[in-house]
């Protein structure tokens, strides 16, 4: 299992920290989505991210999103371990479970220069 490089870990932790420091739910989702893109290859951070998404969905009483996050919590770690995750996917239910998405430039630069 690959260990998360320190640069990616720092960016992931910053995004997850920012989730807790903003009161704007739309901003919380943006930080969670950014963190998700960074976390996908790493089982524990990937799963932790979906748990945080589930928590926010439940707080918002967004039952569709909550159901989708429950499914993602179950498949996140195995998908990471097996390398079977859709690159760039934001992790939200509306994005689809297997839909690859473009990686935002600032994250693409971080991911390609992580060694």
From TrEMBL:
Source organism, top-level taxon: Bacteria
InterPro entries given in the database record: DUF3703
Pfam families documented for this protein: DUF3703
Protein name in UniProt: DUF3703 domain-containing protein
């Amino acid at each position: 299992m690959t260990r998360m490089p320190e640069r990616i870990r720092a960016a992931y932790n910053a995004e997850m920290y920012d989730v807790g420091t903003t009161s704007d739910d739309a901003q919380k989702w943006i930080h969670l989505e950014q963190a998700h893109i960074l976390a996908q290859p790493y089982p524990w951070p990937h799963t932790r991210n979906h748990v945080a998404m589930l928590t926010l969905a439940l707080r918002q009483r967004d039952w569709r999103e909550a159901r989708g996050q429950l499914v993602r919590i179950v498949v996140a770690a195995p998908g990471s371990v097996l390398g079977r995750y859709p690159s760039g996917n934001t992790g939200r239910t509306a994005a689809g479970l297997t839909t690859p998405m473009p990686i935002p430039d600032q994250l693409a630069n971080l991911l390609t220069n992580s060694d």
